[in-house]
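Supplementary notes for students who missed Thursday's class. We covered one full example, reproduced here. Read the sequence, then the structure, then the short commentary at the end.
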Amino acid sequence: MKFILVSVGTRGDMEPFLTLAGLLNKNGHQTLCAFPEQFRKLAEDAGIPFYGLSPKFLELIEGDDAVNLMGGKISALKKLKILIKLYKLGIVVNKELVEQQELLFNNEKPDRVIFNGKSTYPIIWEFLNPGKSFLLSPVPCLIHSLKEYPHIGFKGDYGPFFNQLTYKLSNFGLLKNIQDTTKSIRKKHDIKGSDVKKALFGTKMIYTISPSIFKQPDYWPEHVKVVGYHERNKAGNWKPDDKLLQFIKDHDKLLFFTFGSMTNPEPLEKTKIILEILERNRIPAIINTASGGLIQPENYDSDLVYFVETIPYDWVFSKVFAVIHHGGSGTTHAAIKNGCSTMILPHIIDQFLWNNLMFNAGVGPKGIAVDKLTTENLEPKILDIFKNEEYNKKACDLGESMKQEDLSKELYDILIS
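Structure (token representation):
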């Protein structure tokens, strides 16, 4: 069968699709990944055929407005103005993406489509080709409601009734976005707003989440499945240098810091806060600068701290004691699977959910939002995660449970059904 896998977003949004593409290719199917153009090399390095979508969406969410929204110390009114501005610009960009996806689907004529929530055209394709698509999410609390947690767009716990109400509000906004960005296409096919709603809630949905971390509620619809965390080998041709290997050898208990693909308006200041705490308490660490959320300064104790620009998590997590990170789904799963104590410093949306889930799992202290970081509030938490062996024991137990999961066949059977 021919599969088109469509994902729009940041690096973390692409990884689950590359993993699924690899699984399908291994079983003899034809795959094509349609991602923003910025991820061409990522797909090609994984040996997956690639179709480049407009780079404008990623440029929008990595622009100054989005950076200020994630980690900037700005007023609630200014945040609201930025949100409205980004929403309006997003509609324009999404219309372009919808046109590209329609053209691609018409030319390639796929048998199956796998897509994420930011890719709106596949909902229309699902209405025209019922039962042929799969909505993939690496995080829960997206469309199908939970009593214990609100929708990922909300940070608090409002009780069972109001938690479920947040899904109705958020799904209303999602439907409006789909309807607004697909208006011209819907007109061609005489697709009503009610048809879009039916297609969205009727689409088969797979949550690529470990059931050890998140158990599927028994009240979810039958066509919605938690299918486990699946990872690919990201190391590829990457090789650690001798200095890094020696640094790891010299320290038997290391922290690892990363903000992944997240950025913020004050990366140097955030890095200095972390370095001050590490140096005062003589705690050794590896700091990953990644996309620039953290920065290597000119002066620091290089015997105590090692900076890297990029490093495969599946390689380094097996060599560190604890991971302090932004809270991406993939990073969270990888840290726990490797038995690392975990603390999350959330930047946006679902990262606040993972912060709560990991704290409730007892694998680390409750993290602090990146825009609220200070030396005073971060230091006791870093000391806690470094000294508290109970966090590590629970992380190791949870990691062992994850390693026992083998849901690849179940996932594959779902995809070809």
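Commentary. The longest helix spans residues 76-108. The longest strand covers residues 30-36. If anything here is unclear, bring it to office hours.
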